[in-house]
Amino acid sequence: LTLEALEGELRSMRLENIKTWLKEQMPDVANRIAGIGLNIVNLLIQFCFSLLLSFFIVFDGIKLRRAFRNLEESPVRDFYREIAPGLIGFGRLIGRAFQAQGVIAICNTLLTFTAIKTLMIQNEVFLSAIVFICSFIPVLGVVISSVPIAIMAVIQPVGSGMIHDGFLLALAAV
């Protein structure tokens, strides 16, 4: 046996081992991918239902107010008078928190859009939309929205040194 023949045999054995390993692992990988896909679909369905429910509440707000005011004349009026002021305050607090979160999301989106334009990263509107949506996810939203921006900065053709310098600067800031 020559050295070249021995190398060829080793390569074919490695390839066979890799093929065998891949065949064994494929069902597990497919199940994991299917599980992730199902989780994403489940999350989207839950989001759509919660959005639909919130629209129903908003559109039926006048009737809901009237129904709650009628509680004051019902047999549970003592309970209502005790609980109502606290619930009203809590509702206002939650509403103001959502308003503040919206203002922060808009500012964050505008700043990110400006940075993306400055760094000349492509798909700036799409990436800014991702930033806006993820701004409503506390803490983790910043990380989630940064991933697509980083991927776009790395995979796009090198048009300027600003992309890589800016990416490294942003990475150092995080």
Core attributes:
174 residues; mainly alpha; 6 helices; elongated
Structure description:
- It is a single chain.
- This protein is mainly α and 174 residues long.
- It is 86% helix and 0% strand.
- It has helices at 3-59, 61-70, 77-118, 124-134, 140-155, 161-173.
- Helix 3 packs antiparallel against helix 4 and helix 4 packs antiparallel against helix 5.
- The longest helix has 57 residues, at 3-59.
Q: What share of the residues does DSSP label as strand, in percent?
A: under 5%
General form: elongated
How does the major sheet shape up? none
How many strand units?
0
How confident is the prediction overall: mean pLDDT?
84
Number of helices: 6
Query: What would you report as the Rg, rounded to the nearest angstrom?
Result: 28 Å
* Percentage of residues in helical conformation: over 70%
In whole angstroms, the N-to-C terminal distance is 57 Å
Offer a quick outline of the entry:
The chain is 86% helix and 0% strand.
Write the layout of secondary structure elements.
Elements: H1 3-59, H2 61-70, H3 77-118, H4 124-134, H5 140-155, H6 161-173
Helix pairs in contact: 3-4, 4-5
